[in-house]
């Protein structure tokens, strides 16, 4: 099982657009999402890195992606963002309250739900979603598919209140089970990559038994 330590950055309000520079300034480490769990059916492996940090009451994420094309059709939150070029963070703060799937396509459209399995998941309210600040190098407007080698970045500032079935106040000292994914179900080259490996016969990210660990320092 893979493990990450997420450093605390002592700063005030952080906008998502400022996260890449903030991470560079503080030397925040990047990790690869490069496990091709189903190579016989989905061998394509774009170049994907992510970094994670926090400031106590807010989770900070930054993804860097290079792939052979990008798709950005879903423009409304809670839509099918996984069909687009999409980066995902699944996490389980404890064993009782289920796990969250925070899925964001390359134009910053978010899907956030909670539940104990794939079915009957509870979506976040629109007010909760509005509190998640997003920045992407591709802008926020849908554009369909762009072919050819593409490089893009995505940053998210996620307040702890976004984890709406928990009462998290401060991430410092917390350890959560988590996994990071890159997918694109309806891109030219469908792919399903994970940070921590998944040992299942077919693509399925809703599998907390294969989560790794993130410890927030």
From TrEMBL:
Carbohydrate-binding domain boundaries: 19-216
GO molecular function: carbohydrate binding; hydrolase activity, hydrolyzing O-glycosyl compounds
Domain of life: Bacteria
Any one GO BP annotation for this protein: carbohydrate catabolic process
Any single Pfam family the record assigns to this protein: CBM9_2
Protein name according to UniProt: Carbohydrate-binding domain-containing protein
Source organism of this protein record: Prevotella multiformis DSM 16608
Classification lineage: Bacteria, Pseudomonadati, Bacteroidota, Bacteroidia, Bacteroidales
């Amino acid at each position: 099982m893979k493990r990450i330590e997420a450093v605390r950055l002592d700063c005030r309000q952080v906008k998502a657009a400022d996260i890449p520079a903030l991470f560079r300034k503080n030397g925040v480490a990047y990790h690869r999402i490069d496990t091709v769990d189903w190579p016989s059916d989905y061998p394509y492996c774009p170049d994907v890195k992510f970094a994670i940090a926090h400031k106590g009451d807010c989770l900070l994420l930054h993804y860097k992606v290079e792939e052979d094309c990008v798709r950005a059709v879903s423009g409304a939150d809670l839509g099918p963002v996984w069909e687009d070029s999409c980066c995902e963070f699944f996490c389980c703060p404890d064993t009782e309250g289920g796990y969250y799937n925070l899925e964001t396509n390359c134009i910053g459209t978010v899907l956030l739900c909670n539940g104990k399995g794939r079915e009957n998941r509870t979506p976040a309210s629109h007010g909760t979603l509005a509190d998640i600040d997003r920045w992407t190098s591709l802008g926020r407007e849908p554009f369909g598919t762009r072919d050819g080698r593409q490089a893009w970045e995505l940053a998210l500032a996620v307040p702890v209140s976004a984890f709406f079935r928990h009462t998290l106040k401060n991430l410092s000292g917390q350890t959560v089970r988590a996994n990071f994914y890159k997918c694109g179900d309806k891109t030219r080259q469908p792919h399903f990559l994970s940070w921590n490996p998944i040992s299942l016969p077919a693509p399925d990210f809703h599998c907390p038994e294969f989560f790794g660990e993130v410890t927030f320092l």
